[in-house]
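tool_call: predict_structure(chain=1)
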Amino acid sequence: MSPAPPTRSPLSFAAVDLGASSGRVMVGTAGPGVLELREAHRFPNRPVRAGGTLYWDVLGLYRGVLDGLREAGRAAPRGRLASVGVDSWAVDHGLLDASGALLGNPVHYRDGRTAGAAKRAAAVLPPEELYAATGLQYQPFNTLHQLVAARGTPAMEAARRLLLIPDLIAYWLTGEAGTELTNASTTQLVDPRTGDWARPVAEAFGVDLSLFPPLRRPGDPAGELLGEVLEECGLDGPVPVTAVGSHDTASAVAGVPAQSGRAFAYIATGTWSLAGVELEAPVLTEDSRAANFTNELGVDGTVRYLRNIMGLWLLQECLRSWEAEGLAPDLGALLREAARAPALRSVVDAGDPVFLPPGRMPARIAEACRRTGQPVPRDPAGTVRCVLDSLALAHRRAVSDARRLSGREVEVVHIVGGGARNELLCQLTADACGLPVVAGPAEAAAFGNVLVQARAAGAVRGDLAALRSLLRATQPLRHHEPMGDQAAWRRAEAAVCG
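tool_result:
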């Protein structure tokens, strides 16, 4: 689409950013030399298990979005929002019937229904052929595997529309349906070379692509808030909705404050750590598939070449387990104790699927240490140190593998997202990678969301490098230089890799 004419004064934008553990609506103000972000509303994202299935409470999330938009209107200067953008986690979706009604709560990617789906998929199309066509890493919960698992179910039979989570929220806000490309690229049904559907793959699996509304790209218009939404949120219309990098990692990578001309790796941290490099074209080699790297599409035609790592989910689940036992640990105190604990005493493979389901995380970490002949953490601080050492080690492996497989050099590692606040994790990552780490912004996904909206509205101008330059000029960042012995990390890596 053609860029909007430039504006004379900053505009305000609402970024709806839904994560796996919480949702937030942020108000961003952007203009020439101006970029500010403030939180309007934050709300929990609590999955619900019912009838043996783990669901997302998507109506509860939508309620949080509406409450957030009301607060965003109050927080915006002059009460006026120039646009709204929505991003969320990937792969999950809602099914709609012919009338547009939701056929049931979307199923959580951590639900066990996809067990065995990958094996059935491999019988249709060998993994190496599927990777060569779509460039997507193996994950048991990929959308394609979910569709394989759902084949023949009443909901799937009745479905006339499939909307990924951010597209579903945007549909309820506007009444207009679309499929945003950065998130669609996680379905294992998109060809990353063309940015269009991988039709031979869909045909092989019997996936009816007419279930998906037309593709949108970041910056495309996505409708306007419905009258009932404006009334509910106390907003003056019209308020356009703009497609952003609706996969939250796509928005987070757009929000990496990288310096033009300096080769960088990124680690978008939160429930997951997504670690890799930004490329102009996908890497579809067999070596890349064997290393389980994914080629997801990003803002401005970029490719997010990355590996999924279990991330701060490990720590979040430990905290939940300890709270359930009545320990109510203080995270700040635990991190200070963990910083004093012996380094690399025990490490686990942060990518091991054994850590994917919820529950009993400290016990599963202890079991993994015992199984590999390492000391079992003696207390919560020891477990936290094991988790953070293991994440830093996984970051090291992912950055090293991304360099090797893509041929892209790396001079600096940018950590964005919630983990950017964790100084110990950032320093350990610098130590493990042997590279300087720039930490921040913590709300990179919301910043990326706002910047794409602002450019579409004409509040800011330029390419991705220009957007990142505005981030660097306006946001506080922390710098961590590598310290310590690389040999110790090499020994730990050898132990984890067997």
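agent: The mean pLDDT is 96. Proceeding to next step.
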